[in-house]
TrEMBL record:
Its cofactor is FAD. This is FAD-binding oxidoreductase. One of its GO terms (biological process) is respiratory electron transport chain. Transmembrane segments: none annotated. Residues 37-218 form the FAD-binding PCMH-type domain. It comes from the Bacteria. GO terms for molecular function: catalytic activity; FAD binding. Belongs to the FAD-binding oxidoreductase/transferase type 4 family. Keywords: FAD, Flavoprotein.
Amino acid sequence: MTNTAFLEACAAAIGAQHVLTDADDAAPYLGDWRRRYQGAARAVLCPADTAEVAAIVKLAREHRVALVPQGGNTGLAGGATPDASGQQAVLSLRRLNRVREIDPHNNTITAEAGVILADVQTRALEAGRLFPLSLASEGSCTIGGNLSTNAGGTGVLRYGNTRELCLGLEVVTPEGEIWDGLRGLRKDNTGYDLRDLFIGAEGTLGVITAAVMKLHPQPAARVTALAGLGSAYAALDFLALAQRHAGPLLTGFELMSDFCMQLVGRHFPQMRYPFQTRHAQVVLLELSDNESEEHARTLFERLMQTALEEGLVEDAVVAESLAQSQAFWDLREHISLAQSQEGLNVKHDVGVPISRIGQFIEETDAEIAREVPGARMVTFGHLGDGNLHYNVQAPVGGDPKRFLAENEKTLNRIVYDSVQRHRGTISAEHGLGQLKVDEAAHYKSAVELKLMRAIKAALDPLNLMNPGKVLR
């Protein structure tokens, strides 16, 4: 059947005004967040609800048109960008933007896939609850995208990834059927866990249209601190000490190298570095206490005193106000922006067992220094869950574009080989998309790939759901 027939059928199903074919209208949907990938599409399709999504999927199956599901288009691995053929169609979920229900007694919120993450946080707050998923892109990323990539963020240490915050899903299958799995149950031992198949699948097995997400009580107080340390090894010991002292009250534990802090200071001088001297590593930690701020601050001061006495921490400062706490978090959140200001770099979103982070950094830094003398390491991330953003900046005075062209493949291999030796993962929270699909095939075992391909073939035998992402 012709492309015209497909588009006419889509227009009849969801309204002609929601089938975008004009180049200017479609343009915002065809490139990725980092501007690394630029695709083309037959059209951008914008259904309003689950029934319309199902109708589009059935039409795509009938006309053999591949669909690329897209939420807020904030992904960092090209997972929501169509290829350059112009034969695929983008399926935008932005109009599925209703919060269907908040259940305070069950501590759940049911939200459609296109609801902005910050809006879920706000609606939870209005109900006296906390939705703890927090990302730098929370003002524009969507719940559907968070689920499709199993997003992490700063609260994983206490609350887990998006997968652990989800109780139930509504999904349109590749056949255009609707699976209603919107059950807000903590226990349901009735067979295969279909929910977890779709979370982290990046739209390759079906289209998530709504989800039941866990809520938590709002903490009575949050206390934030920065600590300067001599090494990543000391940071690991400090993490263990903090966990012993604070237990589940410890909600954030972010590691930032000295070079990260230098970059932020260079490009955002208004952001004050709180220490008089520089430290090899800086840790940002936060406690969330359901009792009182006094209780949290007393616990924090006891923790810091012990850490200083044991020589784990060289210096520390505890935020005295919400404004100062936000200033500490701003230092962390501006690292990526400072990198961009500094110039092009080779980015890695890796995960290794927490106990091996110090060794991983030490060994990989040394290997990169031998291979690319002068390369500058931008190392930061969620130490509490083993997720590092391990990025490599060009040498001072070097041409960043030439640096990338000459060294990206070599640096990727060094980093990923080191990750493999340390029993880690090449993608801890950004997904595979099209950026790492070939790398994943290189590092995953034959058995694992065989199982993944069997699942894909069983659910999507025509390969119309986001082809070329996660698996080739």
